[in-house]
Write a structure and sequence with these properties.
globular; oxidoreductase activity; Rossmann fold; Phosphorylase Kinase, domain 1; 26 helices; 6-stranded mixed barrel; alpha/beta; metal-binding; 4 domains; iron-sulfur; Dimethylsulfoxide Reductase, domain 2
């Protein structure tokens, strides 16, 4: 008998009757899993499986990848362009020509009246790299606005900034293979089993073959923390204090790799002097980790033959995100753990192609990690595109997090949002809503017409999804992989690449600049631009000149740099193995990182820390996973993890609704009682509309302009349960 039933219902796996398999790459997170899509005899997609010959995932997929084939006909997909005069009016269907003509005319009118930079563009980490390159060419070389950025500012900007400050250039120096070689792994604010399940499987497999210490730094008892040898439940936002205290122990006990420091770094004396102020006796009272544990962890890490650090949003989404990344780099350079097997600073990227937008989109500069501030870079790209270099601005414009405040002040009058959803993803939702309502013109380009931000648009452009297109992604370990065009676009949607090309033709510079007709043609331009030397004479790390679509598919992805002379299809596993860095001196920068506490702190009025993060079933703002039954049914509604002891004091019961309030707004959530969070903290997944980002502070990192999503204070209030249930159902419609 099973739960009162007399007869066990047998498990039946329906036959998929696959006639052929097509190769592609997963379009969710940055792991970069190789996928095969199964089509039946009617050329209809019926299933998905991992590619067993791919090094990244070796045949495995997480729940999102397994169900990814359901995206193509999921509810809410855009079927045709839509247009209206006011955002509160009803949409009318229109032709592609009319929608694009209107968009181009509105952009020109706004720029003519208010200046070129009065129109802004915000893109995504979800597009294909060739689409990023084409959009960057359109934004920088045709439309000419300097206010162009991507939603990667919300997730990876601090990693980019930290890498640039330490090493002289962006690009994760390590790879997944480092798990096989490391003797100690320290994870800062990274919950791999839920954020990147296949990367976690790679780590778990390495641990089973050869156990090594796993140290997890996280204020919450995450799934990864449950598997750790040592869990450090740090006070939110104080990672720099912990690392400085570790460096204090390592240097004062002579555990540093002085030979590596002397040969390959600069700035050691300044770091050595600063960390003398971070004795673990004092540091423990700030970071919440006791003195003995700090000393123990520092010694374990420094004495390991090879040690590596990984991190995700727990570091990046902070007012000290860039400093935290730079300090992790300090830790690894001082212990000689850069560029060798098992020794690295590896940021675990968020979106499937966040690396592609960092490399080629021109959001923060020009293609191929070139800088607007560098005259030689401006001249090189202008010459290649065939325009006057004076058309380019000489400094980077506003980041995404600065674009929305610029709408409030009237500096930005028009906005084009591509494949991102700031009404759910940006902090302080009420402020974003008011900003969008103030725009003279808003165009939304997205796979789904029911995306929350489309409530405020004047033109909607329906885009194709994933394997309805062709192009490449770059994953966390710099591996370029191919997305194959398996199906035609859904109804009258169009590939983003096509949309960018068509819009470019409606501007004067678009008649001068060559826009290749195919993604592969754009890839050939990228290959050409990836070659050559940096301004100080060193070779470009971001060199993909030896790649082709055929080679990428044959290798199941190739890591850059992969130069024309390279013959193996593996590419380069690690950067900086030669000890040379892309700085003028050729040495990496050790940076003294002082801690300043500017976070919002729990107080009598708002006594709880608010933390946010991912769950394994969903991706970002649920525009896709919220439409897929077997993803959504496991996490269908917003909820809040709360400590049972804190709940008892407030009379809060398990699975009841509460009202959570901050200084910026309120949210209605269902309570999940668990010991995973301490008594003075609550945790909410960030995926749900009109929920956690109604509360978040969004104070910005000074270097990266990335928001601090994870450190603010809240209070818990009772709410009428029937009214809360009504609100919950209403918000789940998105």
């Amino acid at each position: 008998m099973l739960f009162g039933r007399k007869n066990r219902k047998p498990i039946v796996i329906p036959s998929k009757k696959v006639a052929q398999w097509k190769y592609t790459t997963c379009n969710y997170c940055s792991t970069g899993c190789s996928i095969e899509i199964g089509l039946n005899e009617q050329n209809k997609i019926v299933t998905t499986r991992g590619h067993a010959g791919a090094d990244v995932n070796r045949g495995k997929l997480c729940i999102k990848g397994i169900l990814e084939h359901e995206l193509f006909e999921s509810p809410g997909r855009g079927t045709e362009p839509l247009i209206r005069d006011k955002h509160f009016e009803a949409f009318e269907p229109t032709s592609w020509d009319h929608a694009l003509d209107t968009t181009a005319d509105k952009i020109k009118a706004i720029q003519a009246k208010y200046g070129r930079d009065s129109f802004a563009i915000v893109s995504s980490g979800q597009l294909l790299t060739e689409e990023f390159y084409t959009l960057g060419k359109l934004a920088r070389g045709v439309i000419g606005t300097n206010n162009y950025d991507g939603n990667t500012t919300l997730c990876m900007a601090s990693a980019v900034s930290g890498y640039k400050r330490s090493f002289g250039a962006d690009g994760p120096p390590g790879c997944y293979d480092d798990f096989e070689h490391t003797h100690c792994l320290m994870a800062f604010g990274s919950n791999l089993p839920e954020q990147h399940p296949i990367i976690y499987w790679r780590l778990k497999e390495a641990l089973e073959k050869r156990h090594f210490p796993l140290i997890v730094v996280d204020p919450r008892v995450t799934m990864l923390a449950q598997f750790a040898d040592i869990h450090l439940p740090i006070t939110p936002g104080t990672d720099c204090v912990l690392i400085n205290a570790m460096l204090h122990v390592i240097i004062n006990e002579g555990l540093q790799d002085q030979a590596y420091i002397d040969s390959h770094t600069q700035g050691f004396e300044a770091v050595k002097a600063l960390v003398q102020d971070y004795d673990p006796k004092q540091a423990q009272h700030i970071c919440g980790i006791d003195e003995d544990t700090i000393r123990n962890v520092a010694r374990i890490y420094a004495r390991a033959p090879a040690a590596m650090s990984i991190w995700t949003m727990g570091i990046n989404q902070s007012t000290h995100g860039s400093d935290g990344v730079a300090n992790i780099n300090n830790l690894n350079m001082i212990t000689g753990n850069i560029g060798k097997p098992g020794g690295t600073s590896l940021s675990i990227t968020g979106q499937c192609n966040a690396m592609g937008t960092r490399e080629w989109s021109s959001c923060s500069g020009l293609p191929g990690y070139r800088y607007l501030e560098n005259e030689a870079d401006r001249n090189e790209i202008a010459d290649f595109w065939g325009i006057d270099p004076e058309f380019f601005p000489k400094n980077r414009g506003l980041a995404e997090t600065d674009i929305f405040p610029a709408i409030e002040t009237g500096e930005i009058k028009g906005l084009w949002i591509v494949a991102t959803n700031p009404m759910t993803s940006m902090p302080n939702t009420a402020r974003i809503r008011k900003a969008l309502e103030k725009l003279d013109f808003l165009v939304i380009q997205d796979v789904y017409s029911d995306v929350e931000t489309n409530q405020y648009s004047h033109v909607y452009l329906p885009a194709s999804v994933w394997a309805e297109k062709e192009g490449t992604h770059t994953n966390t370990e710099r591996r370029v992989n191919l997305i194959s065009n398996v199906l035609p676009p859904f109804k009258n949607s169009k590939p983003d690449f096509w949309i960018f090309n068509q819009l470019a033709r409606r501007f004067d510079n678009g008649q001068m600049i060559h826009f290749p007709e195919t993604p592969e043609g754009a890839f050939e331009e990228m290959k050409y631009l990836s070659k050559g030397k940096l301004s100080h004479g060193g070779p470009r790390n971001l060199d993909i000149s030896g790649m082709s679509y055929q080679k990428i598919e044959a290798g199941r992805g190739i890591q850059w740099p992969f130069r024309e002379k390279d013959e193996s299809l593996k590419g380069t596993a690690r950067l900086y193995s030669d000890g040379l860095f892309p700085t003028p001196s050729g040495k990496a920068n050790l940076l003294p990182i002082n801690f300043y506490n500017n976070n919002e702190q729990p107080c009598d009025e708002y006594p709880f820390w608010l933390n946010s993060g991912r769950v394994v079933e969903h991706f970002h703002t649920r525009t896709r996973t919220g439409k897929i039954g077997n993803c959504n049914k496991f996490s269908p509604t917003a909820y809040m993890e709360m400590n049972p002891d804190a709940a008892k004091e407030l009379g809060v019961e398990h699975q009841t609704y509460v009202r959570l309030t901050s200084r910026r707004g309120d949210a209605v959530v269902m309570v999940q009682l668990t010991q995973r969070v301490p008594r003075n903290m609550v945790f909410i997944p960030f995926h749900y509309h009109d929920c956690v980002n109604r509360l978040t502070l969004g104070l910005l990192d000074p270097y990266s302009r990335q928001p601090a999503f994870k450190q603010c204070s809240t209070r818990i209030e009772p709410i009428d349960q029937d009214e809360a249930a009504r609100i919950n159902v209403e918000r789940r419609a998105f």
